[in-house]
Amino acid sequence: MDIRQLKYFQAIAEEGQISKAAKRLNMAQPPLSQQLKLIESELGVQLVERGPRQIKLTEAGRLLQDRAGQIIELLNATTVELQDLNSGSRGTLSIGAVASAGATFLPERIRNFHAQYPGITFQFWEGSTMRILELLQNGVIEIGIARAIYDPDLFQAYDLPAEPMIAAQKLTGSAKPPATRLQITELREKPLLIHRSNEAMISEVCRKNGFQPFILCRGDDVRSLLAWADAGLGVAIVLKSATGLVPSNHLTFQEIADPALSIKKAIIWNRNRYLSSVARNFLACLLTART
Question: Can you give the pTM of this predicted structure?
Answer without folding.
Answer: 0.63
